[in-house]
Each structure stands twice: as structure tokens, then as C-alpha cells.
Amino acid sequence: MLTIYPATFIKEDEGYSVFFHDLDGCYTQGDTLEEAIQMAQEVLGLFLVSLSERNIPIPSASDPTTLTCEPNEFITLITTNTERYRRNTKAIKKTLTIPQWLNEEAEAHHINFSSVLQKALKSELKIV
């Protein structure tokens, strides 16, 4: 699931520190701006999945236009795909039933059943 939160980037003597106003304890840093953005995406994903797995309510993201910052800071939106950070990604075997004609057509076209089912489930669940 694609998630977006505003983050404050603080320009340090070397690199950037990053924190999320809405997520107490969610912060990171990077030696360059690019690294800080990548680290912010990762920490955001891991933090949100951690809250979800512990059944802790996930706070709503603030409207970034309501946030303020100091002269050496800036606010930007950080996106992350939380599905990338879920722990239970182990593949499991499922048994399913489809019409024989559909099975034959799919096999004739070398369709990967697992891939199609995963894409369909993600689409149905609105998971990016």
C-alpha cells in the first residue's frame, strides 16, 4: 500500500537529519540529500508496518501546508510502499479450482498462475 507522510529535513554540518511530525520516534539521517530521502522512505515503511503488526493505530498524515520549519529545514512529502516491508512474505501453497478450458488456454499461453493470482489479489485489495 502506497503511503505518504510529510517529513522535515534538517541540514546539518554533514548531511541531513529527517523526522516525521506525525510519527513519534520515526527519524533517520543521510550523508547526502538523496541518501536521506531513501532512508526516509525505508524508515517510514518499516515504522508503519511495525505499528500495524503490533495493532497500534496508525496516525493520519498532517496537511503539509500547516507545518512550519526553521531556516535550515524544509518539509517534503515522503512516499513508501508498506508491502515491501511486511515480514510475512514467505510463499505458501494454495489450491484453487478453475474451469478446464481456462486452464488449457492459460497453459497454452504459458501463463504463470501464481503471478496472475498475486496481481489479481493485490488489485482486488487495492495494494500497489
Spatial shape: elongated
How does the helix and strand content classify structurally?
alpha+beta
The CATH architecture assignment of the largest domain turns out to be 2-Layer Sandwich
Largest sheet: 4 strands, antiparallel
How many E strands? 4
- Calculate the mean pLDDT score and round it: 90
Main sheet: strand order: 3-2-1-4
CATH topology of the largest domain: Double Stranded RNA Binding Domain
Question: Which regions contain 5 or more consecutive residues with pLDDT less than 50?
Answer: none
Strand content: 15-25%
Question: Into which percent range does the helicity of residues fall?
Answer: 25-40%
Q: If you compute it from the alpha carbons, what radius of gyration comes out, rounded to the nearest whole angstrom?
A: 20 Å
Order of helix and strand elements from N to C terminus? EEEHEHH
Name its key features.
21% strand, Double Stranded RNA Binding Domain, alpha+beta, 128 residues, four-stranded antiparallel β-sheet, elongated, 3 helices
